[in-house]
Fold this sequence. Notes:
There is one protein chain. This protein is of the alpha/beta class. It has 18 helices and 14 strands. Strands 1, 4, 5, 8 and 9 form a five-stranded antiparallel beta sheet that branches. The protein is globular, with a radius of gyration of 25 Å. Residues 5-12 have low confidence and may be disordered. This is NRPS-like enzyme.
Amino acid sequence: MSDLTSLDTEKPRRWHWLSEFVKDLRYRIWIIYRRLFSLVWIVNLAALLVVLLTPSVDREWLATIALLNLAVAITIRQDFVINLLFAICCSVPRSWPLAIRRRMAQVYHLGGIHSGCASAAVCWFAGSFAYSIKTRVNIHTSSLSIATLVLSGIALSLLLGMAISAYPALRKQYHNSFERVHRFFGWSVLVLVWVQSMLSIRDAKSPGNSFSETALKSPALWLLIVITMSIATSWMFLKRVPVDAEVLSEHAVRLHFDYTDASPGSFLRLSQRPLFEWHSFATIPMSKEKETQSKGCSVIVSKAGDWTSRQISKPPGQLWVRGVPTSGVMRVASLFRSVVLIGTGSGIGPLLGHIPSCRLRLIWSTPNPLQTFGQDIINQVHDADHHAVIHDTRALGRPDLVQMACRAMQEIEAEAVIIISNETVTRIVVGDMERRGVPAYGAIWDS
């Protein structure tokens, strides 16, 4: 493998700044997530152009395009759809060229489609509402009822509230509020749009047709069914399950579950108040030597806030779970013949959740690993990789994870790097490795 630490030194020095700028633009700003977001908006702008060039556009088309965007935005976040997309992309054989496999591994950026379609839906709803008001004011014989307009206005206001709360800076600072706004405003919008759509169908019904005939021919009805089922399906799997809590230290607890199996690279949603807050944790499949029962998995929870602190100080006997174990970024490790896995702190959980089926080098950076996580976790790390690097930051200080990753890649001739860490470290490592031409993957914090 070539020297990964070199950065285009053969290029003329006067063009070095331009090369660095292009790399920053491509690997740190113009990431796949934003490309998908932009692609969605390009498609919607093309649709807008068609609408503007159409002599007599019908209000129903504006509402239909809005609902279509909303349906895609919601469906792409549905557990079964996510698992299906990961299964398709991760089924690519390792014998295929790395260029194809590294693109398939970008499947976890699908949130770009969600945010793109959701924001476009808000704009289309706004356009539909404005067009409806214009029609009502200018055409006094319009069949559009006042009730339909009022409900449309309320639904649009709630959608705008959801869009504002989802702005990255606000979402990160007020995440619990964002989650509640997204949930309760979203449910309210769904009810309002159902009623508003039925009223619109009634308003548009011709004298010779029944309401049911008109409804069955309306795209809005079928799109609303898709949206409703996508939202409801996750809650159909809501249940309270027993938890066997293993306190590792005053900073971490391991929660064991026996209600389901979890595939490598998946995560669970856990809650004590299912209507108000949910927390996602990567799963660790049951160790083969401990398979005394038919099902089981565990998660590691480290102290990172009020909720996680409570789980450690007062270990739960039961927790609510929703949906099914859902594929996450670690799932893409199966695409590569050899991979470097990097974790910091409790990020070791997702790494242990990847059953090694290829050559790997595991790098774990954390303060006091033995005291914080216990000997069992240390043993599992070494079982996964006999040459694993466990860096005690309390004793050795903060490591240069990029340089450690470069050395590890050369040692095992790895094809990719996957990191599970906090947002800042993840962006640095992924960005720097990508600038070196190395496929690198990590969470993108888009929800």
